[in-house]
Target: EFMT1 methyltransferase
Amino acid sequence: DDDDDIPQLSSHTLAALQEFYLEQQQREGMKTSQGFNQYSIGAIEEDWQLSQFWYSDETASCLANEAVVAAGKGGRIACVSAPSVYQKLKEQDGKDFSVCILEYDRRFSVYGEEFIFYDYNHPLNLPEDLLPHSFDIVIADPPYLSEECLQKTAETIKYLTKGKILLCTGAIMEEQAAKLLGVKICRFIPKHSRNLANEFRCYVNYASGLD
Model:
């Protein structure tokens, strides 16, 4: 019976499909290989299922520059769930600071020893060599707009920072952010490469250049 036949791809279509997948793999490989675009925003694409939304190039640059100034010469910077700021910081080769990225998405392990796997559900499940209060500034962007997520991320922030905090989250979290971390809203309004439905703001607990 012809109805029982399983559709087969022609050899030409199959070859074209294989070529497409090969090109796709090569593109992904180029994105994560050592090269000029390794740290470019978008080199690793957003995964909305992980609630990832990259900052615009301008916003990422502004936040990265603020972190460098706040950290000071030879300073240490931690980016908690803020990979696009980490990428901008890494573009500044030769600058006198060090940086690491704490991130749930293991694709960022391409950045080597500076990558630390991080799950906000276990805020203090961190490597033993990540000493408390060892970072001059912590930049954090909790993945979800919920009190629980902010509360747990705040535990991580307070563990890592020597004092300075730069938090990026929704405007609706202002009261909770002040209560948990003692941060105040800045005039600077961060933007994303794709528009978000929720109003987004920056918060700090020190005299910053974002006002």
User: Anything to note?
Assistant: Residues 11-32 form the longest helix (22 residues). Helices lie at 11-32, 57-71, 83-91, 147-160, 174-181. The longest strand covers residues 161-170. Strands lie at 75-80, 97-103, 115-117, 135-140, 161-170, 184-185, 200-204.
